[in-house]
Amino acid sequence: MSRCRVLVVDDSAVVRQLLTEILDQDPDIEVVGSAADPLLAREKIKRLNPDVLTLDVEMPRMDGLAFLEHLMRLRPMPVVMVSSLTERGADITLQALALGAVDFVTKPKLDLANGLTEYAEEITTKVKAAARARVRPAAAAAAPQIVRAEAPRIVAPVATRYRTTDRLIAIGASAGGTEAIRVVLEQMPADAPAIVLTQHIPASFSRPFTERLNKHSAMLVREARDDEMILPGHAYLPPGDHHLRVVRDGARWRCKLDPGPPVNRHRPAVDVLFRSVAQNAGSNAVAAILTGMGDDGARGLLELRQAGAATLVQDEATSVVWGMPGAAARLGAAQEILPLDAIAARLLALARE
Question: Could you tell me which residue ranges the Response regulatory domain spans (predicted)?
Fold first, then answer.
């Protein structure tokens, strides 16, 4: 397979040099050029025809978001944003993801050279994943087809098969998930069953992300507080750098925040959430894995299915990166595989059954 051709776009000469050195160390990546602003980048894209663009969120001479919007309309290509760990950086990055950027990495606040070197694995992994990503939004199907998978051989312990008056929906996502989660929550009514979510995102991004989702949903979307009751009509995301677990409190559930070590290299991790839901909600739960890189959540989704929960994953055609949902499907964890636009309605239907 040919090497991934990358164009680095950043107004900082130091960052351009460091990113180029980091990416060039990977044998599967070739940095074909760099540009100090979007106008120079536009000409180099035409001349060098890169596979992936790394793009600073704040750029001179042309607004970075305006450049990205033009790029995705005129020449759609995978873009990885390189953002700062600030409130403004988080907001611009989330807007960039809404415009079609595949993923993002964050610049360290201090000691830029050493900090970026520490992020070398993350940067190279995300660039290579972006090269395989789908950047054109899939056309909505008139009648989405549900793909049903064979049931796993292992059955749930009887102890997990209890019922309460409420149902619980659990969702996990990573690369491409900020927009996928928005699409799902936009379709949820104000009285939908409670939803618990985990999205791989830096600590400083979690509050702007939650606020952005809340603006797009009839549900109340909020950062979870430790030990708070989980209520219908509410969607809960963990605050930055904490796992979210669900614990039982009689016939109801509460949020439990866990600052413990990363799981699958992530904190928050989808597997942590899903396993807690399998143990404490069992067949009262409905769960979905949306677009994302890696395999976090796949084993947790299998445990949910074995505990009697209904499980589904986003299909490959509408996923930005079919890593996490693909891993779950291969593991036999998903009962159904659906396009993104069909997931909210199906989660609600399964919760009513």
Answer: 5-122
Q: How far apart are CA 292 and CA 80, in angstroms?
A: 14
The distance of Cα 253 from the centroid of its chain, to the nearest Å, equals 25
Closest CA to 350 of 274, 286, 301: 286
Please indicate, yes or no, whether the overall pTM of this predicted structure exceeds 0.85.
yes
Nearest to 125 by CA among 51, 201, 23: 23
What number of residues does the chain have?
353
Q: What does the DSSP 8-state code read for residue 110? A: S
Instruction: Tally Cβ neighbours within 10 Å of residue 225.
Output: 12
Rg (CA), the chain: 20
Active-site annotation, residues: 174, 200, 296
- Give the tens place of pLDDT for each residue, 188-218: 999 999 999 999 998 889 999 999 999 999 9
Q: Indicate where the chain has its CATH 3.40.50.180 domain(s).
A: 147-352
CATH topology of domain 147-352: Rossmann fold (3.40.50)
Alpha carbon 90 to its chain's center: 15
> What's the fold here for domain 4-131?
Rossmann fold (3.40.50)
